[in-house]
Amino acid sequence: MIRLIGDAESRAFGAKLARVLAPGDVVTLSGPLGAGKTSIARGLLAELGLAGEAPSPSYAIVQPYAPPELALPVLHVDLYRIEDEDELLELGLDDARHDSALLVEWPERAGAHWWHDALALTLVVAEDDARVLTAQVPAAWRARWPLT
C-alpha cells in the first residue's frame, strides 16, 4: 500500500514508474473518477520526455506517443467509454503490446484476460483526501517492484 497526497505525489509516483517501464509492459490503473489515474499517467509521460500537459484520452480512447516525443513508445488508453469487449479488438491493443508500453485506465471495462500480466494499480480516495494505491504485481514486474 502506498499513500499519495496531492497531485504532485501522484505525478512523482508516475515518474518512478516510467524509470522501470519497457516496451511490452502493461500498467493498468483502476479507481473511481478523480482518484488520480490520469495524474500518475501524466507523471509517467513527463518523465519519458513529453513536453507540456498530456491530454486525457477519454474521448480519443487511445493516445499514442512515440520517439522522439518520448524515450519509448507508449499508448495511453482510457477504456471508460468502451461498452463491449469486442471494441478492444478494433483498437489493436494486442498487436501494439509487442513494441509499445500500454498504460490503461479503466481496465475493468475489458475482460481480465486482456491484462493477465499487467502491473495492476488500484487507487482509492481516503477520508483525508489522500490516495491509497495498491498493486497486484505479476512475475514480470517482481524484480522492479516496489519502486525506489
From TrEMBL:
One Pfam family recorded for the sequence: TsaE
Protein localization: Cytoplasm
Keyword match Cell cycle: no
Recorded superkingdom: Bacteria
UniProtKB keywords: ATP-binding, Cytoplasm, Magnesium, Metal-binding, Nucleotide-binding, tRNA processing
InterPro entries attached to this UniProt entry: P-loop_NTPase (IPR027417), T6A_TsaE (IPR003442)
Family statement: Belongs to the TsaE family.
UniProt protein name: tRNA threonylcarbamoyladenosine biosynthesis protein TsaE
Source organism of the structure: Sphingomonas qomolangmaensis
Organism taxonomic ancestry: Bacteria, Pseudomonadati, Pseudomonadota, Alphaproteobacteria, Sphingomonadales
Protein encoded by which gene: tsaE
